[in-house]
Specification:
InterPro entries: CH_dom (IPR001715), CH_dom_sf (IPR036872), Parvin (IPR028433). The protein is mostly helical and 332 residues long. 50% of the residues lie in helices and 8% in strands.
Amino acid sequence: MDSDTLSDLHEEGKNAINTPMLPTGTEIHPEDTLLEENAERIMLDPTSRDNLKFKDLLKVLIDWINSELEEDRIIVKDLEEDCYDGQVLQKLFEKLSGRKLNVAEVTQSEIGQKQKLQTVLEAVNELLRPHGWTSEWSVDSIHSKNLVAIVYLLVALAMHFLAPIRLPEHVSVQVVVVKKREGILQTALVTKELTSTTEMMLGRFERDAFDTLLDHAPDKLNVVKTSLITFVNKHLNKLNLEVTELESQFADGVYLILLMGLLEDYFVPLFNFFLTPESFEQKVHNVAFAFELMQDGGLKKPKARPEDVVNLNLKSTLRVLYNLFTNYKNSE
């Protein structure tokens, strides 16, 4: 390296140190001084790492990945260190999508890792883009262990594939954006929203008449609830059962299963579900089984997740029952 280049680097290093608006605890990396003109680097502000909701989000995502990849004997402990080379992301995408990607199994070289990431991200983007997800990730950001980019990607996959997890809502972090303009490094602190509400994130996929009703006519909610209670009781009364609270009485899945049997006119064998479920898992099993019965009856797969119904999410429960009502309201 010649003396002029060293001098330039030294000057840029001084500029970096003297850059205004640099958040406390944030270090300018030596490679930042080598940024191309107008190029930028984004990193998580250190204070955001201690954000409890962010930590909770990381734990939920790690547990989810480990649950999905249990058969592959892959254990993820740290998203930055375990996801950057594309191996875990490849296995996760293949498991979720049921698609085998044409990539080398093990890649040690940086070029090989980036090629693998390129293939994985192309497949992901092809799947997600039509549903309104913007790519907040790239080969370079993932490979450089940018935690925010990795989390954005995992949240998008979890929502798209309706993962059986409850993502913490309204998780935001601060990121430091380092940009080079006219040879000088500039930094800014930017807030990034990683999750909004489950309903808003799922809403990227499809909004239906029910969403519109709740958005524009919340006063009609009680009318809808009354109609649904009348509808379900018309059928459940045949078994001497009665519903007064929609969100709580369907949460364990039992009434949903019995209702499907009545609507489709068949007896559901008791060994297929838990008649007195005690654990969260047993309740989720019941609701998921009821969803299967609905699909067997020709209905679309419910937009709600079984976990949301079990968690007493009123909107999710109403959506499931409203779907039944519109399909079976004329059934005797």
